Task: structure prediction
Amino acid sequence: MTYALVSGIAASGFYMLISIGFMLQLRVADIVNFAHGCVVVAGMYLAIVFVNDSGMPYGLGVPLVVVAGLIPAWLIYEFLLRPARNQGHRMQIVVTILLLSILELIFAKAFGTDFKSIDITPQAWEIAGVNLRRETVLAFFIAVTICTTLFVVFRYTTFGKSVEVAGKYPEGARSVGLPVDRLYRIVFLTGTAMTLLAGALVVASDPATPFLGFEFVIIAVLITVAARLSFTGCAAASLLYGVGYAVLAKIFDSPEKGTIGIYLVFIVIIAAGPAISALSRHIPQRRQAAVPAPGAS
Amino acid sequence: MSAAEQPPLEASEIHAGYGSLNVLHGTTLRLDDKQCLAVLGPNGVGKTTLMKTIAGVLPIRAGSLTFHGRDVTAAPSPERLLHIGWVAEGRLLFADLSVLDNLRLSARAAHREDEFEEQLEACVALMPILGQRLSSPAGSLSGGQQQMIAIARALVRKPEVLMLDEPSIGLAPRVLDDIRVALAELRRRGMAIIIAEQNTGWLAGLIDHAVVMQHGRVLLEGPGDLLDDREALRAVYLGG
Amino acid sequence: MTAARLPGWSFFRRFGLSRLWAGAALAGLLVVLLAMPPGGWFDIDRPTMTGILLVAIFTYAWHPVGGVLGDLSIAHLVCWAGGGYACILAVNGGWSTPTSLAVAVPVGAVIAGVVVAFASLARLEGLYLMGFGLVLVFLASALVGQWAWLGGEQGLTATVLPLSPDDVYYLAVAFLVALIALNIVLLTSRRGLVWLALRDDPDRVSSTGWSPRTERAIAYTLSGALCGLGGALFALNVGFVSSTSALTLSLIIVPLLAIYVGGPGTIWGPLLGVALFEGLSTIATGNSKSADTAETVALAQYLVALVIVVLTMKSKRGRRGTRKTSVPERAAREMAATAAPAVAKIATPGGGKPDPLRVDGAAKSFGGLRVIEEVSFEVQPGEIVGLVGPNGAGKSTLCNIIGGSIRPDSGQVHLGRTDVTFWAEHRRACLGLGRTFQVPRVFASLSLQENLEVSHTRVSETAAASALMALGVNQPERNSDTASLLERRMVEIGRLTTAPPRWALLDEPLAGLTADEHDVILEQVRRLAAAGACVLVVEHLIPAIAPVVDRIVVLNDGRFVADGPPGEVLRDPVVVEAYLGQPIDLAQAAG
Result:
């Protein structure tokens, strides 16, 4: 049980890292990006290229992956995602699924469809008596740090609030001269950077194949939706996804029942979300004062 | 004329609109230094469109716009709003952020964060009600208070021009009194103000110059006492 | 039927196809498919063709929900798999082939029914709906793996293969043709128009008298049943069904892409999409056995698909963009969903005289701020009443209370003798309430005249077309995203002429129009009243409506401050004050 718990918690770090980027884009720029998972895979492959083929040390390769991956990501944002912003989620989903398919094929052509691993000596760290890969643990701590930092930044710093406001009240933000489009771009690039990092880290323990992209984005979608676009929710949902299965499997004494249990929990969480916001729509004081009313000062 | 002597805001033959709809058909107006200008006219005539065009949120399809003689027709909106404090129609406050945050974000966007404390003090001195509710969420305040916050949000940017779009919407006369007092004080201190309004009554005594718009153009123009010519205005608004 | 039902690529739209032609094309397709020899053409043999047909079947079965309604419901994959499982179970249970196939239909329908009921209850839409569907698929996968009677991880194998590959092929052809025919019928029917409109603007649809919830339920269940049947055939094709074969997400992703690349909500779009994705790669891999070539072809096909989608994206102004560019934002913000015209024609004077519109003591607060204060008034049949007042007076709120998108805190709304205070919008529309919006809300996927056909009464093509032409809109069969603001307004007004309401609510019908254009609209307003409707016109441009109204009521600060004939009211000092404000005593102000 301890093994399941600890390794589950560690794995949830990875889920957190890949979901945060997806969630940020949705929350602030209102973009659904199904090609998000491919960014992870790109990170994995870039790390392999830098370490295996260019002989770079892993510690140098990881940050370089982030830098190198941002450039094509930025181009894709400018020419594909930004124009799709006004088209609504449906079209964004279609466009990004196509993009996902294209990227998968490009990866397949470039790297082949076999599993590719990175050439580094595995290092294990012992946590609570369980041996975990160093990178998995790192990923967890980085993820938690990022989640917490973003939470703090968005809630307590002026810059974070500007970004939040650009997403929630774009008209009002424009009226005070906030560079809304530039903020959306920054958010996209930040999210992408985190995702590339996730890929560069996870490749240490899991080999890369071109078709993982879809799997990853599905996880990101589930966690984002269950988290209802909040940072704490993201962390919680990731933990749930990573650990919940193991815990439930133990409780029901069967891994299959554990899987079923966790999906049922997710359904409840997902369904509860919109139902709760539908109810809270009847409480208008949190809304921007859109209906002019006789002042009762 | 040096830059300082040029009018803070001058719009020439502005054409603007939304999609296939053209709203402004050649609007020309000038806001002089230390002047309080009223832009009047019934709804749909283009007052808000004009303000949005000046702010840069709507593109200028034809015509030119200058701030202190400098051509800003091509300047992007955040740049224009460095000089203008825009109190948009409906106020557009960040409802679930505190009043203080609303103000601070605006100051930061105008690169005035280092002067924020003193500007804030000045605003509170001008509109005391602000001081008591700084940490409340902006959406929880009354209409009148929200209007004051919106004005303060524009003032903390230390703008050269204060631009207000229908500030009196949905406000009771007593509240309007307080706002007028604040605006009068700002005018006394030399701020150039442009106010778009449908309801002209509460503005009396505040205005140096007034323009009346109709069908996307300036129809009448005159000194502040134009507001007192109720028959002329009534004819434009109500007809008959 | 107009040109719009062809693939979305704009150059195809120009060719009009009536139901007859579409049927003829379909018959042609049938002949071609049946004529295919067992060895196939271009190295596509029958089994491969069957595989492609099954993809097309799923695409067309899912199309009513995924393409027409626009809901990306992943959950329908569970209907597909459910049908497959039901069929194999039936075959293994000794049931005849037709029965085994038939049993898949209710299975698929029930699954879809449960999904849509849950989704409606929990108000799931967009990404939340998709997330829900994804989890459902995973859950189904896990459950199926658990249950031995469903074969567990290994899945179910049919003990006997009741159909030969040829049989399956012919069945697949027949089913696909039937599905396309169904889509043709759907897209050329009024219901199909309503579903397309639901994709564009669900709130607007409810004000035409159609219930979004009911229509969604119908679409989901129908599609579920068809997906179930498709899944059954899919299972019988290989004699086997398992979670890995029938519950993989890629099974539904290809139909999704096919629909949206080919053209959602069109007849042939999905087929073109399937041809692009399945046909091309099959041909390519057929000719050359190299995996590398297959990859290149696949890459090319996705790139082409992406280019097509991006081009269609750029050619539209964007669904949201269309609304925003219409009229000043102030108007857009004050606006909420409202009803459009619909319901029975008003009988000629004498029989079934319509009753007055009455509001009694309506009050409304938003978060502690009182917007409307105990407002009461009445509009008699045949009367035109103008509702005016300065900004912030509460006009929009009052409109929305009458229209049904807001419930008052107290008071009642009566349409005739019926108390509709708590009625949903579409029910009011069915009863006879017709409304136009400040910002014209026109369904972008439909042509201008089809917009008028989305109504609870029967509006024929010719009636819609002639109504629009009478209002000065040329070529009413063209697509609405080419319409100017004036034309959109005319569409809104047109609804009131083709489906004359008993109670009409017009929200700033003159905004953004020139003086000549006013006359056309005001003429229609007069006609409405002459036909016996109670007409309430909300306007800012008082001089414009003054000549046409019988009475003006002035709202200020949520209260009525005047009520009487135009001449009187417009000179009433209280009214002048409401607009121009109180003349301030300068001496008082300086002090």
Summary: Chain A has one domain: 2-281. Chain A touches chain B through 28 residues (CB under 8 Å). Confidence is low (pLDDT under 50) at residues 282-297 of chain A.
